[in-house]
């Protein structure tokens, strides 16, 4: 996109995204992807044909772009053509790539305890403990404010989580004790976990670095990220026989199918299932003649 030729078009697209309450980062990413498409075309993207869109997708695929990049480009182009340009049939000329979902990495309760104990400092120990203790996404952890911790009702308010939805999650007494220790030590104002400049919250990148350090110090061989703690939270709840619909609400999942993935990694639950082979064997033994 060149500013001279495309500014009105870009402005219209931004307005369309603003109407739909797209987050600032999402708007920025969409604009950048349309700019890349325009560079590929060598002209204004609103003059593109469906064959141009196909060529661009082929260009991305053959240049080594990963599946997330390809799917993000499809989402952007569908929005641009369907909403901003009113060319809804573009959907028929773009395809998302569906890949099998991999099972998430899950830590055992013992590994989680070692991991949190190895956190580099109190601030990060508290933040990572919230990620596990309440099952939060990294973006939700760093966006927490002091006022989101409701010790009277023993809940944490998650404001505008994924899908622009508010929800409440439980606040365990032990987690509250840790958060109070952090508050008394740092006296954060506004953001619960402020960044280097207290005006801003701690960045997701900062928390991921602390996570890497804790995993190394705890000598955990698995690939660990803040999201691993969320996976572990859900799996451990399932192994405690918590209703899967309750877990869905706590995680903020729109679909139960997403939460049901954890039934495939809840090994304690799997181990406790009685195999039909054992039942048959038991019956055969009951009916067998006693040895002479």
TrEMBL record:
- In this record, what's one Pfam family? Phage_int_SAM_4
Gene3D superfamilies hit by this protein: 1.10.150.130, Intergrase catalytic core
Domain of life according to the entry: Bacteria
GO MF terms, alphabetically ordered? DNA binding
Segments forming domain Core-binding (CB): 4-85
Going by the UniProt record, its keywords in alphabetical order are: DNA integration, DNA recombination, DNA-binding
Q: Does the keyword Thylakoid apply?
A: no
Its GO biological process terms? DNA integration; DNA recombination
DNA-binding: present as a keyword of the record?
A: yes
Tyr recombinase domain boundaries:
102-275
- Tell me what this protein is called: Site-specific recombinase XerD
